[in-house]
Amino acid sequence: EARRQQRDYFCFSAQMLDRIAHRERMQKELMDAISKNEIELAYQPIWDNRLGRVAKLEALARWTHREWGVISPVEFIPLAEQSGLIQAMGEKLLARACQDLKQLQAMGYDWLQISINRSTLEFNTLNPDGRDWLDVLHQHELAPSSFIFEITESIFMEGHEDHLQRIRALRSAGCLIAIDDFGTGFSALNYLRLYPMDLVKIDRSFVQQIPGHTQDRLLLKGLIDIVHNLGMQLVVEGIEREEQQAFICSQGCAYTQGFLFSKPLAWADLMSYLRHHHPV
Ligand code: C2E
Ligand code: CA
Ligand code: CA
Ligand code: CA
Hints:
Residues 23-278 form the EAL domain. By secondary structure, the chain is of the alpha/beta class.
């Protein structure tokens, strides 16, 4: 019995070592990919239903590894956070988004805003005056009002005192702040009262069963009202079917995003998408 236990233990730790080795390799590969600018951005259109045009583009990170193929940001963003690479990656992606926006503006798409995801760790380690991000925008001579920073409510749970200052600094420079995945945390309604924000992105779990599910329908209706009454813009995410879009529009929601319109697009595909919908 003792010997068997010993062997089990040996197998277990060998497996763990394997996993640790894999993690270490992945971390090294990620560091490499960041320094070689191999992490790219895909852009998902966000439609303005009132004006009937694309209003914003959400920038979503993509990593294609020569051996492992496409790795989801759900996997590599946490890895980047745990290994202290997130800030370097985030700054490079912000610079990349700036170059892309410059190019879009030069092509005539000068009304588009770019919406950029920032993880809690990135936000909480930003200088309280927002300098590191604002400097990148200024270097590219872009108006801060073309940028939306998407943060999640988890930034409010860590007891940091500086986030109000950061939000104020970014907003007074002209940037917009969006609260992402709204409704999936715990203190949602409370921090809408406490923190000045421009935009609320309602998580797709709220629309999955729309319009069939009565309770979800009422909840969504209520959320849309609350956000609009507080004077904020609202984006509903994860629209996949016509009837979801129809319901959202009937409730007066201006902005929608989801596979019904488009998946996140690589640059060349974004170009054809924009040319098709908005010849300029
Ligand atoms: P998110 O910010 O909530 O982004 C929306 C996710 O939903 C994206 O997944 C997008 O591809 C997906 N999506 C969009 N429309 C639909 C739809 O109609 N149906 C369904 N089922 N899904 C839809 P993605 O690109 O895999 O990104 C996952 C998460 O990774 C993001 O969630 C965001 O939290 C994080 N992320 C992505 N890029 C970055 C980045 O550059 N920096 C940071 N810090 N986080 C990022
Ligand atoms: Ca987002
Ligand atoms: Ca989201
Ligand atoms: Ca998310």
